[in-house]
Amino acid sequence: MGTYLARGAGRDFWITCGLTVLGFLPGVAFALWSVLRDSLATPAQPSARLPYSFSPAFAGER
Does 33 have pLDDT greater than 70? Predict the structure, then answer.
């Protein structure tokens, strides 16, 4: 269920289901790895900001 909520019904979800049918621990281990692998990676820096983005700090200034 965690893989489905985090990644959708794609490849990782079906691999997790198959491993869980074969054995509970391999399915859980793969599910944890699948969900946590993206959160452990460093997030990409935004390439550019929109020129007219809303910023609450400057909402009153014009």
Answer: yes
